[in-house]
Design goal:
globular, 5-stranded antiparallel sheet, alpha+beta, binds zinc ion, 17 helices, 3-stranded antiparallel sheet
Length: about 525
């Protein structure tokens, strides 16, 4: 059986309805990276370092591993239907943050669902977006720690404001803060926090006090307060000189802005989820990238036009475009999202202890958090379940995970899928190092054994970057701490009962099939 089933499978791939393995090699982003990634690496220090800082290892890895993500040629998993024996090949994914839109999409769906279930009670919410003038943005690019301080300041001022307008000093609002470094277009570095705040707060007895309508003059006054606090804070941190701080405070048009126009009413969990997905969005949309290989130019169109800008498109040289994307790849071991007040377990627990549990609207659909699997998310978003056999509706299981190059080539050749290794084009233009000419696979780190595991369909939780939980008193949680997936392949395979890891033996089986 084995590979023959795979063969028929490959033939029917196109006709099958519902879920089909994606083909990342065909995307514009993939093609432009193949053509220009080496040039980008070679020329980085000379061309981009002065503007963007050194090329961070995590950015390099995200770029390199994107080439492998979802491509069967690098690693594959064989799955088989328990009932009818139908087989399929599934690739591994990179699970890196900030570049791979496919992996990011999984993370944000998982995160939004988790936040809805475990963090955000069913009350009204408001999004607050605080922007800084251009003169201050550069400090954030080179000191990632500043994001934490900035979100603390914003949360403090919002809490103070809410206590003032409700007249309750003991009011406890809740906040989820996302750090953004990009606007609607990825061309500039634009650090600003997106805050999802309860539109009101909790009293010690657990009752919720809604906020009165937020008026324009409230946001203007708040923005002015924030302006003074941020400038004072950066001055204290030694980022600004007295002169610059004074001049920033004297500007008539400050360059700071605070937006609070997006509100989600209580009971509208669908709208809240939309807001969370918006806050956790990717720096760019893959569908907006159009790569012209002949001229080496990228045309990018944003998902919408930003009110402050006169265009929603950019056309740049492909290498320049890669640099634009690389600057938004998150720093390693730094959280992009933080929780405060009534969104932290401590405060929730305290409020629950007072006798009136917070109402979390969505009951945990499954007892174990670990069941929040990619398969279920696929079901939720696309209405198809990749763990179910499309032919007979039976359940599919993993039968082997194949990393050996020769085995992969044999299997792909056998089923008629492309088995040629995607080749990176050598760097062009000065400065060319001789080594760059032969950089194809040697450049690509095949670290799957260490830190990659089975693709979407079968990974339980897509949490990467083994970040330690940030301890800041108010933000002890990190998404899915208890539901971390197994991080090495053997563990992964053990995670799925009833299959074995077939290395060379797998090859023998395939050979047998071929002979028939
Ligand atoms: Zn089946
Ligand atoms: Zn990926």
């Amino acid at each position: 059986m084995g590979a023959c089933c795979l063969k028929s499978r490959a033939k029917t791939e196109g006709r099958r309805e519902g879920y089909a393995t994606r083909r990342p090699e065909q995307s514009d982003l993939y093609r432009l990276l193949l053509d220009h990634l080496e040039t980008f690496f070679e020329g980085y220090d000379h061309r981009f370092q002065p503007r963007h800082g050194y090329l961070r290892p995590e950015a390099r890895r995200a770029l390199e591993e994107f080439i492998q993500c979802g491509v069967l040629r690098f690693a594959l998993v064989r799955v088989r239907c328990r009932d009818c024996g139908e087989e399929a090949l599934v690739p591994l994914s990179c699970r890196r943050r900030g570049l791979c839109t496919s992996c990011h999409q999984k993370r944000r769906l998982v995160w939004a669902e988790w936040a809805m279930e475990e963090c955000l009670p069913d009350v009204a919410y408001r999004q607050w977006v605080f922007s800084l003038p251009k003169a201050l943005r550069v400090y954030f690019r080179f000191d990632r720690e500043l994001f934490k301080g900035l979100s603390r300041i914003v949360v403090d001022e919002l809490t103070r404001y809410m206590r003032e307008v409700t007249g309750r000093e003991d009011l406890e609002p809740g906040f989820v803060v996302w750090d953004h470094t990009f606007g609607t277009l990825p061309d500039s570095y634009h650090p600003h926090p997106h805050v999802c705040a309860t539109d009101g707060g909790y009293l010690p007895d657990g009752s919720f006090v809604p906020l009165p309508r937020v008026r324009t003059r409230d946001t203007e006054a708040l923005c002015e307060l924030l302006r003074h606090r941020v400038i004072g804070w950066l001055l204290k941190k030694g980022k600004l000189s007295e002169e610059l701080a004074g001049s920033l405070l004297s500007w008539g048009h400050s360059g700071f802005s605070l937006d609070a126009t997006r509100r989600v009413a209580a009971g509208r969990r669908d709208r809240l989820e939309e807001l969370l997905l918006y806050m956790s969005r990717h720096p760019f949309i893959a569908g907006g990238i159009h790569y012209d290989a002949v001229s080496g130019t990228v045309h990018y169109r944003a998902f919408r036009k930003h009110k402050g800008r006169d265009t929603d498109t950019i056309s740049v040289d492909a290498v320049e475009f890669i640099a634009m994307l690389a600057q938004h790849i998150p720093h390693a071991r730094k959280h992009q999202v933080r929780y405060y007040g009534a969104c932290t377990p401590e405060v929730r627990k305290r409020l629950e202890l007072s006798g009136k549990p917070l109402k979390i609207a969505m009951p945990a659909r499954t007892a174990a958090r670990g069941r929040r699997s990619w398969a279920r998310l696929m079901w939720k978003v696309y209405g198809v379940d990749p763990q179910i056999c499309p032919k007979c509706g039976g359940e599919r299981e993993i039968i082997s995970v194949i990393l050996r190059d020769d085995v992969i080539v044999k299997i792909l050749d056998h089923v008629g899928l492309p088995s040629k290794l995607p080749a990176l084009k050598p760097a062009r233009g000065p400065p060319i190092q001789p080594a760059a000419q032969q950089a194809t696979r040697s450049r690509l780190p095949l670290h799957f054994e260490e830190d990659c595991f089975v693709d979407p369909e079968y990974s339980e939780f897509d949490c990467i970057d083994d970040e330690p939980p940030e301890t800041d008193g108010t933000q002890p949680t990190q998404v899915g701490e208890n539901s971390r997936p197994p991080t090495d392949l053997l563990e992964l395979v053990n995670h799925y009962p009833g299959k074995q890891l077939c290395w060379a033996s797998d090859l023998a089986e395939d050979d047998g099939d071929k002979a028939e």
